[in-house]
Amino acid sequence: MSNNSDFQIEDGVLIEYTGKDKDVVIPDSVTSIGENAFYWCGSLTSIIIPDSMTSIGDSAFYECKSLTSITIPDSVTYIGEDAFYGWTSLTSITIPNRVTKIGNGTFSGCTGLTSITIPNSVTSIGGGAFGDCTSLTSIIIPNSVTSIAGGAFSDCTSLTSIMIPNSVTSIGDCAFMRCTSLTSITIPDGVTSIGGGEFRKCRSLTSITISDSVTSIGGDALYGGAFENCTSLTSITIPNSVTSIGEFAFSGCTSLTSITIPDSVISIGERAFEDCTSLTSIKIAASNEKYLIINNYDKVERDIVAATEVFRTRKLDSEVKIPLDLKIQLAVKLIDWYDNAEAKAYVKKMLTRGMKALIDSGNLELIQVLLEKTDLITKKNVDKFIQYAIDTKQQEIYLTLIHHKDEIGAYTEISRKFRL
Q1: Distances in Å between the alpha carbon of 258 and those of 51, 250, 343?
Q2: What is the model's pLDDT at position 98?
Q3: Is 83:56 a contact under the CB 8 Å cutoff?
Q4: CA-derived radius of gyration, the chain
Q5: What is the pTM of this model?
Q6: What is the greatest pairwise CA distance in the chain?
Q7: Exposed e or buried b for every residue in 84-120, given b needs 16+ CB within 10 A?
Q8: Measuring CA to CA, which residue among 289, 208, 204 is closest to residue 242?
């Protein structure tokens, strides 16, 4: 058992423990444990902290690997950064209800920690506070918490569920990165942005609910995309409040089969949908009822932004650099929804190339819009489009054009050349 000569104490602050005992009782005269006081005391197995204690300094018990438990008295109001870093034998801990902040890295690397109680007094959880707590299976964050800093729960590989209260307004980059057992998450109403790498490599994540308060979904080259490599995610709904989607945001989501981009989005970072191998098409919404489905392709992000701008302004800039087939699709949608004169003029100007693009993509829906809502397909040009449908083996389009030819009075006996 330790004695007072084992402690260096100055004005009530325990500066350093110099003893070699495995079981330590801190003297009652101590009111504060200073920085690094028990730094790398790897043989320490038990410690008793007196009720006189009010604060535990940064790295106070850093890498005390053999300590299995600790009782922090209710008198403690402050716990410093990395205070319990690397306590690999610690299995559970209760934070006193006078502590208002869990500092950066406070419990980082506590690989044996399975449960923790956070009191209602805590308002913020620091960066990496519970990083690499690989045995932690669940955690309840109280309604008092308003911010969760970057990497707070990163690499908590056994964490299957976490409830983020509506009191939280800020979640930092990589906060839940590599929580590989996490299956669902709800972003609360107060949060306005989802940080870069926030759920990156959460490979079991199948369900995400994003609140209408969110305006940006992050991603960059440093932290990666917010949902990058969430390989079990099959679908996601982006609310109309979102205006920006960052680089790599959904990159590597190999099970993602559907996503809807609202017309509120004005910027999408590069490679946001890279390696989404199951995502063959992307829905671009002009409203809840009006949308355009386009194919997913390399560097599609830039074209999606252009499309949302068209839907938002209802103006088709003929000079904008997007693929012809997409520009034609946008124009036809503007005709269909708004009887847009500018769109009609553009389609008329580009009719031959535009019709061929629609036939090539098998877009019967938009061809029917042109047939029903414009007089652009006439007796003079219908035959060449029929022939092109034959040449490209688009049978449904061919039959539709033949029927249209009959309706406009241009039908005669069908030549053999018009048979597939």
Answers
A1: 57, 12, 28
A2: 95
A3: yes
A4: 31
A5: 0.86
A6: 112
A7: bbbbbebeebebbeebebbbbbbbbbbbbbeebebee
A8: 208
342 three-state secondary structure: helix
pLDDT for 20: 87
DSSP assignment string, 149-164: -TTTTTT-TT--EEE-
User: What pLDDT sits at residue 321?
Assistant: 80
**What's the angle, vertex CA 313, arms to CA 312 and CA 318, rounded to 5?**
120
Q: Give the residue-averaged pLDDT of 355-368.
A: 94
Cα distance between residue 38 and residue 19, in whole Å: 10
| Residue pLDDT, tens place only, 99-136 | 999 999 999 999 999 988 899 999 999 999 999 999 99
Q: DSSP E strands: which ranges in 105-245? A: 115-117, 124-125, 138-140, 147-148, 161-163, 170-171, 184-187, 193-194, 207-210, 216-217, 219-220, 224-225, 235-237, 244-245
Name the residue among 239, 232, 181 with its Cα closest to residue 209.
Answer: 239
Helix, strand, or coil (residue 139): strand
Res 319 pLDDT > 80? no
CA 25 to chain centre: 47
Q: In what order do the strands lie in the sheet with 291-295?
A: 235-237, 258-262, 281-285, 291-295
Asked which of 37-51, 68-82, 279-293, 398-412 is least confident by mean pLDDT, the reply is 398-412
Average pLDDT over residues 349-358: 94
Q: Is the dihedral of CA 375, 376, 377, 381 positive or negative?
A: positive
Tell me the three state secondary structure of residue 340: coil
The confidence score (pLDDT) of residue 411 equals 53
DSSP state of 16: E
pLDDT at position 203, please?
97
State residue 337 phi and psi, 5-degree precision.
-85, -40
In the numeric block, the tokens 């809807």 are attached to 260
Q: What is the pLDDT of residue 117?
A: 87
Residue pair 240/212 in contact by the 8 Å Cβ criterion: yes
